[in-house]
Amino acid sequence: MTYKAPLKDMLFDIQHLANIDQIAAIPGFEDAGFDTAQAVLEECAKFSEGVLAPLNWEGDKNPSTFKNGVVTTTAGFKDAFKQYAEGGWQGLQHPTEHGGQGLPKLIGASCGEMLNSANLSFALCPMLSDGAIEALLTAGSPEMNAVYLEKLVSGEWTGTMNLTEPQAGSDLAAVRTRAEPQADGSYKVFGTKIYITYGEHDMAENIVHLVLARVSGAPEGVKGISLFVVPKFLVEDGGKIGARNDVHCVSIEHKMGIKASPTAVLQYGDNGGAIGFVVGEENRGLEYMFIMMNAARFAVGVQGIAIAERAYQKAVAFAKDRVQSRPVDGSIKASAPIIHHPDVKRMLMNMRAYIEGCRAMAAVSAAAFDASHHHPDADVRKQNLAFYEFMVPLVKGYSTEMSLEVTSLGVQVHGGMGFIEETGAAQYYRDAKILTIYEGTTAIQANDLVGRKTGRDAGATAKAIAAQIATTESELTEQGSADALAVAERLKEARLAFLDVVEFMTANGRANPNAAYAGSVPYLMLAGNLVSGWQMARALLVAQEQLAAGVETAFMQAKIITARFYADHLLTKAPGMRDSIVAGADSVNALALEAF
Amino acid sequence: MTYKAPLKDMLFDIQHLANIDQIAAIPGFEDAGFDTAQAVLEECAKFSEGVLAPLNWEGDKNPSTFKNGVVTTTAGFKDAFKQYAEGGWQGLQHPTEHGGQGLPKLIGASCGEMLNSANLSFALCPMLSDGAIEALLTAGSPEMNAVYLEKLVSGEWTGTMNLTEPQAGSDLAAVRTRAEPQADGSYKVFGTKIYITYGEHDMAENIVHLVLARVSGAPEGVKGISLFVVPKFLVEDGGKIGARNDVHCVSIEHKMGIKASPTAVLQYGDNGGAIGFVVGEENRGLEYMFIMMNAARFAVGVQGIAIAERAYQKAVAFAKDRVQSRPVDGSIKASAPIIHHPDVKRMLMNMRAYIEGCRAMAAVSAAAFDASHHHPDADVRKQNLAFYEFMVPLVKGYSTEMSLEVTSLGVQVHGGMGFIEETGAAQYYRDAKILTIYEGTTAIQANDLVGRKTGRDAGATAKAIAAQIATTESELTEQGSADALAVAERLKEARLAFLDVVEFMTANGRANPNAAYAGSVPYLMLAGNLVSGWQMARALLVAQEQLAAGVETAFMQAKIITARFYADHLLTKAPGMRDSIVAGADSVNALALEAF
């Protein structure tokens, strides 16, 4: 077994930190309680461990290939995707009225983690379909959805997101792909899109491209961008596959990682125009795309947790197996497995604490998403939406940045063997590096955090979260164990550091944007660190209760130790980050451009 | 030009921080003053930029190949090595009596940086030859040296270091390769060595393997290890190449990076025994190897600086070229090169500050090495040796760990393009990861720092360095500029944090080794951070003087800003690291092994 889903930890978060009972109390989610979560996660674990995980290294060795416009995926991927679709996994979180299972994101997020731990390259395909589904649910007409939505939800077809062009990466205002309205209400689309994940492949009979383009005569900038559906094959009445559309893959990229996932350059309209259909209203494309991107950003954050978990499991297995040198404390008189060495433990504990902290943050955020969409009380929805939206850049930015450190530690634990490709640890290191880039780089997430999520409400949401954290500190103090007290102290220092930074961001966001944005990514990292550490602190409180009740003793003891480690070694970074952000903006911006 | 040697910065360090005038005042180094340094560095820059740098990406695309026992290096490498040898570069730091140029390490280190920036995979070959030369200089008999040394120094032959075996990585006590004494005073060597850099190649007519092995009947553990010369081809009287020796390459590794550098599995003695010659005395092999490893460790630290510099230059070029989005401060009303965005500046400044800090630390350490070997005054030699030996784990550990962060930022600055192999940024990210592993992992460096370098003299050297840092703080305070005062404050906080940790290490090193070694790598990182930051602080003082004198104004202003950035953003990490080390040891060690 190369991957074992961490079901116990996932279910702990779902039950105790994200409170699935409260989600199951929401109308529509009555059947989505803890038992359902457990059953679904167990099934997903089987599929991920048994079908997807064994294909992961295979995909790295034998990536997707491109020849004459055709992309052939790694042997085994097509069949795995068929099983995925037949298992109903694509529809997990999507509405029952379109053929989905209508389960909460809280359950979906854990499944997403497993799929991505098992095989990041594979799991990207369904992730992109999820994005296309979200976009259609948001703005597709009933007629359009009748044609495309169920096929996407069932996994018969897959979806893509076409944003990037050579001159338009983070800056979507620069999109040039154009759409010419036709007499029949359709459009002809012309242009080049790059970095299109699963933009061409052989795993499904049709591909539904969601494409950002400008209608002729539309305003410049982001206000003139519309969203189109451009299917690879046109769809005839009755849903039958029709003529090949004028969208063609002209090459796929040679990438450092996620090699099995074909990253396509797509050419639209070289032979008269690709036929497309506008989604929702013209010129509102970016707005729809952002809805879809928020879902995708959360999902990429989960990918960070997923790849980190896989790297951790591999490192643990190696550290228990590899015998090298005597323990420094003399407790063993011969060479011992390297997990006995304190620095190996330190690396593994770092990995573990990061992963558990980020997993808990993601679970709590997913539950907030569910409540924000489905809770009957408008105030509850609103509060949860504010919380969730604040969390999206943290889940995306912090979890993926931490995955770089964790996968690097994963290689390091292996020593020289980590650098040999056949060992497999290097693949995680290479794969992870895309996560801080796609669906918005960490800097783009940080801009969102500083501008929309902190500036717009003058820090109100940030301060409300800090107030919740202060409550947890009181609970820790009341609990009174040495661990609880130590964690409370570190959490308080980190919270106060965070509040100083929030103050700095709200004061400078508009007045001195260069100063604020000089610290945007450190602010994101500090906030992500704090929130993850807070969830670990909450986990410690739960674990101490459960321990007192005699439940899952070993697991609860481990949780307490890991929470303590998080506070000792990760939360302690917060005050220094505060100093860097609040006192260090000038030195970020001072150097003349020609001096670089 | 894909690489431009940072001559100005190197010469600034050599002149002002490492005080080459003092080195040139040492007998034997009379001709090694600033002018010589400048001339040598300029020549080395030409060679590195013009010959080696263009082969770097080529070597990644078309790595060394293995077929039927023969390794063929990337096209162009053989000729480049010929030029390297003919240019006299291999002998730069080696004694004139063996055909070298006898220049100080202070000059050699800068040349090493350039060669490695230009082409890390290539530069490994001469680096390993340097190691073999060091070992022979240390312990080789005049007869042995007459045969091998000049050929190595001239670059006609190359050298290797054969330490690792499948069961003996960090733990050399487990070495099993055996050597059987023969009647003629030679030995027959039998065993398998792995991870042998340039263990087989086509760039030189002979390869001189330095091999750790056990003489039959030798004591167990490290005290029974001897060092042997085992040439690929035996050498006849008069230095002519003779019969092929019984050492054969059976495979080379498929690695994540440094792909052009062949990493060989060598089989000794499958056909009757490889003929070897003991270096120095039997059973003292590890002692000799450590001398050679200390040189190699310093050199690997320089590789970290080198790869970071290359990544920085590439990122700067991209950031000045790539146009995307308007600056947040509204200073430009259209899309601008991304270097205008504060977060891009932050990433570039981080890279720059790390590199300049580590380069200065390496220069000062190299000068200490020179003084420790050649100064006429024994006390001066002793002081410098203690300083240099303290620095080796910092130069190796800190500079290579920072190179992981810097090469990751390098990819990040490129956004999506960074993940595409053809861009080249990904290669640096992949190449760098070996640096924290080979010649002793960061943990091995940290063990050395905690045990030999801090514990053995009860922190005396560490405290002496802290006292020198306090002097710099006084000078900064006296200087009195806003930058100097801000740097003084951060330096003081970091120094006090360091002293707390030194106290903790000396108190716990023997009494509670699990606690000490739980913090060993963080201690190394804190110490490296402090010393680099200290050198940046010294650089600031020099730059303010030079600025006042009107010398190189733009360079000096940039140095001051970079030093300030270092203090604001990197030194500020120190107090948190102290807290993690001093208060966090228990949570590193607490988790039961079966709970991982």
UniProtKB/TrEMBL annotation, chains A, B:
Listed cofactors: FAD
A GO molecular function held by the record: flavin adenine dinucleotide binding
Flavoprotein in keyword set: yes
Domain Acyl-CoA dehydrogenase/oxidase C-terminal: 283-449
Residue ranges of domain Acyl-CoA dehydrogenase/oxidase N-terminal in the record: 37-156
Lineage: superkingdom: Bacteria
Record keywords: FAD, Flavoprotein, Oxidoreductase
Domain (Acyl-CoA oxidase/dehydrogenase middle): residue spans on this chain: 161-267
Record domain Acetyl-CoA dehydrogenase-like C-terminal: where: 469-591
InterPro entries for the chain: Acyl-CoA_dh-like_C_dom, Acyl-CoA_Oxase/DH_mid-dom, Acyl-CoA_Oxase/DH_mid-dom_sf, AcylCo_DH-like_C, AcylCo_DH/oxidase_C, AcylCoA_DH/ox_N, AcylCoA_DH/ox_N_sf, AcylCoA_DH/oxidase_NM_dom_sf
Swiss-Prot/TrEMBL catalytic activity: 3-(methylsulfanyl)propanoyl-CoA + oxidized [electron-transfer flavoprotein] + H(+) = 3-(methylsulfanyl)acryloyl-CoA + reduced [electron-transfer flavoprotein]
Organism listed in the record: Polaromonas vacuolata
Organism lineage: Bacteria, Pseudomonadati, Pseudomonadota, Betaproteobacteria, Burkholderiales
Main EC class the enzyme belongs to: oxidoreductase
Protein name: 3-methylmercaptopropionyl-CoA dehydrogenase
EC number per UniProt: 1.3.99.41
SUPFAM superfamilies according to UniProt: Acyl-CoA dehydrogenase C-terminal domain-like (SSF47203), Acyl-CoA dehydrogenase NM domain-like (SSF56645)
Function: Involved in the assimilation of dimethylsulphoniopropionate (DMSP), an important compound in the fixation of carbon in marine phytoplankton, by mediating the conversion of 3-(methylthio)propanoyl-CoA (MMPA-CoA) to 3-(methylthio)acryloyl-CoA (MTA-CoA).
Family, per entry: Belongs to the acyl-CoA dehydrogenase family.
